[in-house]
Automatic annotation (TrEMBL):
<protein>
    <submittedName>
        <fullName>Regulatory protein, FmdB family</fullName>
    </submittedName>
</protein>
<feature type="compositionally biased region" description="Low complexity">
    <location>
        <begin position="65"/>
        <end position="101"/>
    </location>
</feature>
<dbReference type="InterPro" id="IPR013429">
    <property type="entry name" value="Regulatory_FmdB_Zinc_ribbon"/>
</dbReference>
<feature type="domain" description="Putative regulatory protein FmdB zinc ribbon">
    <location>
        <begin position="1"/>
        <end position="42"/>
    </location>
</feature>
<feature type="region of interest" description="Disordered">
    <location>
        <begin position="58"/>
        <end position="109"/>
    </location>
</feature>
<dbReference type="Pfam" id="PF09723">
    <property type="entry name" value="Zn_ribbon_8"/>
</dbReference>
Length: 109
């Protein structure tokens, strides 16, 4: 059952009421008795829990380990830091070191 927020236009009394969708709207203010008790427009209050939501899985930009990965593979991926598997990092050759010092420079380069 939804919770509706009401406010009296005469005295300013405000309260929340738990009502069925089929129940008629309240009209009489419980504080002053006037027929100026009106339903307020409010934002829906809900929370996304569990996996598969933007807030829990994708907001931080980190890849979540799949259920097919082993714990060791997910640790290696986390240690890599950029989301690439450790095997891919080992296969990538290291960049060649270059020197700006003329004495150490190779003549063939």
């Amino acid at each position: 059952m939804p919770i509706y927020a009401y406010r009296c236009a005469s005295c300013g009394f405000a309260n929340d009421h738990l009502q069925k969708l089929s129940d008629p709207a309240l009209e009489n203010c419980p504080a002053c008795g006037q027929a100026t008790y009106v339903k307020q427009l409010t934002a829906a209050g809900f929370q996304l829990k569990g996996s598969g939501w933007y807030v829990t899985d994708f907001k931080g930009g980190q890849k979540q380990p799949s259920s097919k990965e082993t714990p060791a593979a997910s640790e290696a991926t986390a240690a890599a830091g950029d989301g690439a598997p450790a095997a891919d990092k080992a296969a990538t050759p290291a960049p060649k070191a270059t020197s700006t010092d003329g004495a150490n420079a190779c003549a063939g380069n």
